[in-house]
Amino acid sequence: xxxxxxxxxxxxxxxxxxxxxxxxxxxxxxxxxxxxxxxxxxxxxxxxxxxxxxxxxxxxxxxxxxxxxxxxxxxxxxxxxxxxxxxxxxxxxxxxxxxxxxxxxxxxxxxxxxxxxxxxxxxxxxxxxxxxxxxxxxxxxxxxxxxxxxxxxxxxxxxxxxxxxxxxxxxxxxxxxxxxxxxxxxxxxxxxxxxxxxxxxxxxxxxxxxxxxxxxxxxxxxxxxxxxxxxxxxxxxxxxxxxxxxxxxxxxxxxxxxxxxxxxxxxxxxxxxxxxxxxxxxxxxxxxxxxxxxxxxxxxxxxxxxxxxxxxxxxxxxxxxxxxxxxxxxxxxxxxxxxxxxxxxxxxxxxxxxxxxxxxxxxxxxxxxxxxxxxxxxxxxxxxxxxxxxxxxxxxxxxxxxxxxxxxxxxxxxxxxxxxxxxxxxxxxxxxxxxxxxxxxxxxxxxxxxxxxxxxxxxxxxxxxxxxxxxxxxxxxxxxxxxxxxxxxxxxxxxxxxxxxxxxxxxxxxxxxxxxxxxxxxxxxxxxxxxxxxxxxxxxxxxxxxxxxxxxxxxxxxxxxxxxxxxxxxxxxxxxxxxxxxxxxxxxxxxxxxxxxxxxxxxxxxxxxxxxxxxxxxxxxxxxxxxxxxxxxxxxxxxxxxxxxxxxxxxxxxxxxxxxxxxxxxxxxxxxxxxxxxxxxxxxxxxxxxxxxxxxxxxxxxxxxxxxxxxxxxxxxxxxxxxxxxxxxxxxxxxxxxxxxxxxxxxxxxxxxxxxxxxxxxxxxxxxxxxxxxxxxxxxxxxxxxxxxxxxxxxxxxxxxxxxxxxxxxxxxxxxxxxxxxxxxxxxxxxxxxxxxxxxxxxxxxxxxxxxxxxxxxxxxxxxxxxxxxxxxxxxxxxxxxxxxxxxxxxxxxxxxxxxxxxxxxxxxxxxxxxxxxxxxxxxxxxxxxxxxxxxxxxxxxxxxxxxxxxxxxxxxxxxxxxxxxxxxxxxxxxxxxxxxxxxxxxxxxxxxxxxxxxxxxxxxxxxxxxxxxxxxxxxxxxxxxxxxxxxxxxxxxxxxxxxxxxxxxxxxxxxxxxxxxxxxxxxxxxxxxxxxxxxxxxxxxxxxxxxxxxxxxxxxxxxxxxxxxxxxxxxxxxxxxxxxxxxxxxxxxxxxxxxxxxxxxxxxxxxxxxxxxxxxxxxxxxxxxxxxxxxxxxxxxxxxxxxxxxxxxxxxxxxxxxxxxxxxxxxxxxxxxxxxxxxxxxxxxxxxxxxxxxxxxxxxxxxxxxxxxxxxxxxxxxxxxxxxxxxxxxxxxxxxxxxxxxxxxxx
Length: 1292
What we know:
This is SSD domain-containing protein. This protein is α+β, with helices and mostly antiparallel strands and 1292 residues long. The protein contains 37 helices and 35 strands. Strands 13, 18, 21, 22 and 23 form a 5-stranded antiparallel β-sheet that branches. Strands 25, 26, 30, 31 and 32 form a 5-stranded antiparallel β-sheet that branches. The chain has a 3-stranded mixed β-sheet with strand order 5-6-9. α2 runs antiparallel to α3, α35 runs antiparallel to α36 and α36 packs antiparallel against α37.
């Protein structure tokens, strides 16, 4: 009490113009503890205002120019010491406000008025004083609290000028740091000024009660007092000292008229109906009408026998003879053929030892020369890669909410998860994770978090506390003592206890504060020195209601390293142990949290895990297919001959042929160094099995149905059968080979590699079928002819082989029931219309993309993480706008084209990004870009303490940081005050001080320091100092599916392109200069910008060779080729339509399956088309029936029934990708291929198929076949007509 008398209330205040209420500095306020700056207070001194002159005037003019009226004519109520203290206080605010001169001027105006106004006694009333002993021993009465009377016109205008001023480093508002507990959203003029006058915030030296009254209002004013009602500047006005108007970034009134984006295109409608649907119905109705008009059976004359017909027969004659000879030779020497084939396969297979499996999704789905990959390469070459994220999102759904009656904030409803017990539990988990240690062979020492963590403010030699860990406990510096801290506090005469809840409320609304306004006096900064933004600490809230959050977020950020870096393995091992701790914690029954988690390695781990776990599923699938083939190929004429007539070994041989073809393909490409992938291992065997099994069935069933001719040897019989069916097998295999080889023109690496592997595998499969399988069938035929059992070869059966060929079950059913029912005059019209109409509408509604959770197995913990992420996270991924080499940032024109503060272009780089954030639903941009250029200019501004120069000592003329406390050692500012208030450094100064800015650690004295925020954002040439790359970070809105990620990429590129064109207009900027957006997700989602065109191209290049090969091998039969092509197109289009119904998105995996669909469709279609073309029935309907019965049964047994059992097994796979894109999509492809091949195509051929008849009198003894034709191709069509068709296809 000898030093001060606290809370002395003045009852005899005097309020007269020209008088001061206090004057001169009286020392430190004894009532303020834990102040961030010295709380110097004035002495109570009712006296006349002082005429300031000399140095006093010069200092006064620099601090409070609005009250300076010339030396000798200026009265003031502040001494030099007061002005110095005021200048230090205003310097802190100017660091964030100086980018808007009128705001900084208005803010200074308020405090200059209460501190220095010559009419000070009229505009305030002293409310509290304290006795302070001076160094001389004299006790003086100091003012520690007063009431200031401010006009609402002035306060409101001042607040409006400052409320939109940005902090470029965070993208937030400066007002959020100056409004305490209310943040920027709830800040008002009264709350803004209340914070300035609250000594508990660590910045205000004394308590000021700002009373805001309307002009003319006298109630509440003491006698003689008046409102301070000077004119405040609008933010779009220049200052009296020459400062220019604030920029649009900081002042809405300065914004130009920015046109709104055009409205989104409306859905294509005709009337009230979907336009596509209406057009589809119209077109299909017209086509159906034309088809009906065409359906008139007619006969042709001999003159209609064209060169095409002759070429067709000649082609069949040539191919049939060739394959017949070949088959006879292969069947005659099986014991030579089989070893030779094995040797060839082994030669190819040896290459598998060098096979390289690509597992990186980036390398799989993004072309090396794609734009996204080029941009990623540029980013990674110049900047550190994105840090590795390890995160938990925790909820406590069973915890009840509770109310808290806060002294400062009133009654607050805290959600159940915002409780001290849970925060402490989270802190214990966090500390356990932070304490992870392990021996590292790569480092040859014990490794811990500090070895790999992201430490933005101490990147060179971080300690554990330097690591960036974002969590709610960081508001308490990870201290349980701080969490348990309590203190009594008096506010407006009410005394209550304040605790962690008051501190939490304050910090989430003012995360950049170094000291809260409670009696606790704790900082909001994390222990590593940076702020913790609330959207990174809590989630699941609305409208910034952080205390109602439903989730806590704990994030550990690690540096990302190249896979060749030794620390990459260290980071992965740390993450492995992180996952182990988290998983053990989750299993602990005492855990109070329900949570989801992930590590950076989780995606790759889970994909690899499910791949390994699903291998047995694929093995079972192939086993089921093998079992079916082995059983279905048998003849089974009687129970006694089951073991004789079975084809178990033939089926096994067919499977081995498929396996060998796949192995040979993989070995060949491994030889030449072409990488493979897991999708190749999963899809290619399935595809080749479908193709190979079909050919096996056609060959074996034809052999079983065909009777051996008299005098014909077994080998000749096999050769003749091969001559009948091999052209059809060649047609399909060659079509597929060419299809897949052309598919390798795709720019997607996964699609390209799949196409190459599939093409060679199909080719090898055909070669091995024409050699090894023919030899194997020959050996089996010998055994069967000798009546020996298949498994026990030495055992013979007495029961003879039936004399009639075995037609099996399917062939009679299809002949007797299916084909006639399908092709009767009524049903074929209905089926044709239904199948044709089903091809269209849904095609236009398929979604494009692949949600990342689908890459996870169905039991993956990552699925819970994605669910929590989309539900609770309130901000999207960060994205960088990156500049390439060539732009001159050092010139005034260059600076203005980039920055967004005062004096900058209205449509500058950063300003355009800010405009985009005004339409987040269209631009997907949520937070404007942080700008190192803007903060660098503010850092250089002499109005702040950031950039100073040593004037003495060993570091003379070098940069002096703001935390240097020497009074005269850093008296010189880096820059002088510009006349117009727009600071633009010279080229020399720009280059001189930029390294100092980038290495300057931000603190209270200089929050604009670039270390942490920008030290990695600017890349300079080491020799010339030229800026060769820089980046500006913004944030996307929360993105929850691939469509939104793709849309965000597209809009970001549009914005970057617009910025690029503007910046190229700056003098000296080359035309190859570019601004591009980059974030880690772009490289995955870029494919969806072009996937539709890519898909159309790939499918087109598969369809064209199918048509060409079909026409050539059918002897230039264009009509058959066209009908074949049409049906395959129908299958493909229908597949895409069904994808819409079944929720299968169109993406690269789907595209691979669609390319596969074309290949499988060839099997369903081409055999039947050729069978129809070579049929010798008299009418098209009869020929369609015959082709459906004979070849349709083989296709059904060989393709559909081979695929379906294996596909059904895939439904039990854990991987969602397999369930959706292999089970669902392959099931759709198989069923649609079956329906089109056995329903649509026969109907189509019965309408539009070709036939040729020759009107000739064959009873004439002098009858001769037409030139170029052999009589075996002629058969009676009707009473007086002959038709000619291809080689030897006499079905039934």
